[in-house]
Amino acid sequence: MADAPATRRSHRSRTAILTATTELIGEVPYAKLTVEAIAARAGVGKQTIYRWWPSKGAVVFEAMLESDTGPEGLALPDTGDIATDLRALLRGSVAALTEPRSEAFLRAMSVEIQQDAELAATYRERLLLPQRAAVTTRLAAAIEAGELRPDLDFELAIDLLLGPIQTRWSLGLGGLTPAYADAVLAATLRCLRA
Amino acid sequence: MADAPATRRSHRSRTAILTATTELIGEVPYAKLTVEAIAARAGVGKQTIYRWWPSKGAVVFEAMLESDTGPEGLALPDTGDIATDLRALLRGSVAALTEPRSEAFLRAMSVEIQQDAELAATYRERLLLPQRAAVTTRLAAAIEAGELRPDLDFELAIDLLLGPIQTRWSLGLGGLTPAYADAVLAATLRCLRA
User: Fold this and answer.
1) Are B105 and B186 in the same domain?
2) In whole angstroms, what is the distance from residue B154 CA to residue B140 CA?
3) Closest residue on chain A to B160 (Cα)
4) Mean pLDDT of residues grouped by 10 in chain A (194 residues)?
5) Can you say how many angstroms the Cα of residue B157 is from the centroid of all Cα atoms in its chain?
6) Nearest residue of B to residue A162 by CA position?
């Protein structure tokens, strides 16, 4: 236990860095957000950040994961009605993509994963694939319950559900409302129903 | 006509800049591509570039529009069979998103439009909206011909057709093959058919 005070200091620094990042992501355009600014706000040296994270994008991703403002959570409700549960998923996705702080996080990650293959792989493994696995679990239960076609392709089904919303957002096409989420769901369910 | 030689010089510089950009986009990671490097390759001064374009992203967009390697062209074929024509659209989209140079252009634009609202607006007006208008025209003809439901929402239909492919690409989920394009089409047509 000799290193306990150092560990506590580390923990405090880590928390300060992630809090500073979460604050700054809402204040500064992402291109102007620097590791120096995060370090200054957190009251640590830049080297402390680079000791734990390889890049600005990696710190931002960690802050996003801890901020509770990431995209829809990992567990999907199971009310027994697949339309109800997918409606919550799609509306939650619209909410995450339009709420200012979570949108700022997601735009930042969208920029980073186009350019940083290592971070893109981490993003997929720690966030995207677990999210998709949670949706797959819920779809499988709906097939079991006879609500969806038994020959459903899970990957394609998830792409049809989330792709339209995600694409309007990433291309800046607007129109991301709960009503739009419901329209995507209604159309997609016509393809997925038993 | 006193300014004709100057106009010719301008035209040569412009072509040299766009050619240099198209070459460099395939050679250099986008974050490392600079206006200086484009100017050097084109044999012009940096100020010549900034006289015509406000930013690196704006030059890259112009080069993309002129390189013929942008996403699917603006005119959609009309063979009389909507499935055939949408298959060409979706497979063309997969091809544009996976062919190295056009993918490099599209990743660059994807990064820029998250961060540059003015360029995002130009991108929408000069590329996205005309592309979507061309698809809308083809869908309207298919409704007229009784191939698609008359109450079809064009915007939503386009999102369902192109969103899954676009999203797999922007999230780096892979699997972008002609077979995947055909699977998206088959599923979506089930929702859109009359």
Assistant:
1) yes
2) 8
3) A164
4) 73 95 95 96 96 96 81 74 96 95 95 94 94 96 97 97 97 96 96 87
5) 19
6) B164
